[in-house]
């Protein structure tokens, strides 16, 4: 959850510095600095003088630069190569025949923080009745690598590696080929692009191999498909059996993220190699591309993966709760937001005035004395204007010694603040939210007795610390609590729609557990991921859409095993149309950011419900050709479409009308001008259940203003499996102020199935 205020600030500052640096460089240097570009070529344009495409690429590169060498060639998902080029060279290449696009390398971010966050039990037992399926399914995870010795990669009981698997266990620092087995069937690493940009990997900090020195990749891959491990816990919290969503599926890891980030030339190559290796599902808990799809390597790689029937699941991002904050919004990707589980890790902060506040904590260790401890606000224990944040070196030891210190959340890492208080001699810490985080609570494995509290509690505690002549406090840790209601609630950090690249496609697609997730961890770092943290744990509890994405990847593996003929779009449709968006009492799933019911812009179709997804009744299928029509509809040019699809001739016919509203998506995003209007969508559903008749109900409204939704026909009768039926939906609405949103649902119901689609309406 790098979103949580803390790192965002740092990233924003860095971005300003980069822009300044880039401007200065452009002004100063004539030749310009080299950076990596991905050069997309039209394979069929190769002149006959060249036998191999590689020779042609090398010649193309040499024609603009003597100095540049090819970093990677790409020949499956895209055609072309990457190389270090000056801007002038890149521009020269762009006008060469056969060159479709020249995309500058982009650095992507993991969609979580390196510091541990929530604590919670993985609910996989409840989620997976048919968990013995999936042993022929291979989940490829692009991330920070793997810690193969963890019991989550135990292969006991698994049959031979699926036939046709071409993956490898690559050796490197601290990593032998023998690390792989029948569970972890592949482990590779990609750093040519990274090292070209950042210089050689510092092997004192990270292994030049598939080994995970971060924890993130071990966490995500074990969440998707880790074997069941009894007696898992973090420092005594969340004790139980930890198990991936598809515990019998195989895992292949592709390390693309290093200390300095995840680079698009490496990501694209890793996706290509994973596809050639034979993965069935690709899981990417990273992002950063909000650019057009043909500029976003994840979208580009995912397109060709989709064409090959590979399900690609990506995290929506942790930039919520603001609107239009999501990444990975391409319609051929399944975009996953995050919700909470029904578990919590309460800690009670009791003040000297008798007031009792509930907070959260994963602290484990020596407890505070049961008698009240002096309490002080960090802002009054520092001579620095940043003192309230408990920045390194900012606390005055004489003022905090032996006390519980209230630190404001923000700017530096939450667990780091505990180190600062401890170093200054403090006895404990209350970590209080400010307006930036509201009531969102994050339980951390603090290094001293510490608890996180919401903004409201924080405000009254600050006031108490400032006004009481002898303020005192105590913190009581209450362990792991289950059955927390309501749950799930949408995590504040979960990135929200609308989809900025194509507002006509509703994103995220759905949410899954992404808060308080317990899964395997690296042996190289402590649970906080901080350098000063010498603790080592086999499991860790962290949060982010990085955690929700592999839940969906694992579920997709189960569905793939249960329905081998389903396309990626059919699998996504099943997950979406069976997801739920309310609690058993009928109230809508809440958004922790607002305390109000979430909307389809927050949760898409709703929260995943795997046991229902196995038998969805109807699916909205999408073939690769339909996505080409979609690309025509969004007015991509021939070169841009070719970079994604590799279609060499102009894919869009001049005498056809293309419409985003015709893409057979299992959700509806409707856009009206402020004056109101009408919009017609067409859809086709495929019966994947028994014969039967479905009746539609559909409605939408913006507050008390209804949107007219009419569906034609309103009844669909299926006599056999595989049968397709089409319908049209017309949305009509009066004028509304621009920026108004309305929401609703369109539901097909039979005696056995409910096929539910969300509707989001925006007046622009
Ligand atoms: C790799 O194998 C060598 C030789 O058997 C062994 O000494 C080394 O400890 C192994 N390394 C790891 C990380 O397992
Ligand atoms: C504080 O409140 C919790 C319940 O919210 C309760 O379990 C705990 O005992 C209370 N502690 C004190 C000291 O009142
Ligand atoms: C404590 O800090 C607040 C503001 O941060 C200030 O208004 C107040 O005067 C300070 N109190 C003491 C005793 O330093
Ligand atoms: C502020 O506090 C730090 C740490 O106690 C100390 O080194 C520094 O001299 C102080 N500065 C002022 C201006 O008091
Ligand atoms: C429309 O396309 C068809 C074939 O795709 C072609 O035969 C026809 O001439 C086209 N019509 C126009 C007006 O371009």
UniProtKB/TrEMBL annotation:
Catalytic-site annotation from UniProt: 143, 216, 546
Subcellular location: Secreted
Chief place where the protein resides: secreted
A cellular component annotation (GO) from this entry: extracellular region
Protein's GO biological process: proteolysis; system development
Signal peptide positions (record): 1-27
GO molecular function list: serine-type endopeptidase activity
Biased composition (Basic and acidic residues): 203-217
InterPro entries hit by this protein: PA_dom_sf, PA_domain, Peptidase_S8/S53_dom, Peptidase_S8/S53_dom_sf, Peptidase_S8_Ser-AS, Peptidase_S8_subtilisin-rel, Peptidases_S8_3, S8pro/Inhibitor_I9
Residue ranges of every copy of the PA domain listed in the record: 393-460
Residue ranges of every copy of the Subtilisin-like protease fibronectin type-III domain listed in the record: 663-761
Inhibitor I9 domain sequence ranges: 36-111
Boundaries of every Peptidase S8/S53 domain copy: 134-582
Alphabetized Pfam families for the sequence: fn3_6, Inhibitor_I9, PA, Peptidase_S8
Disordered: annotated segments: 200-225
Record-linked Gene3D superfamilies: 2.60.40.2310, 3.50.30.30, Peptidase S8 propeptide/proteinase inhibitor I9, Peptidase S8/S53 domain
Keywords: Glycoprotein, Hydrolase, Protease, Secreted, Serine protease, Signal
Family: Belongs to the peptidase S8 family.
Name under which the protein is recorded: Subtilisin-like protease
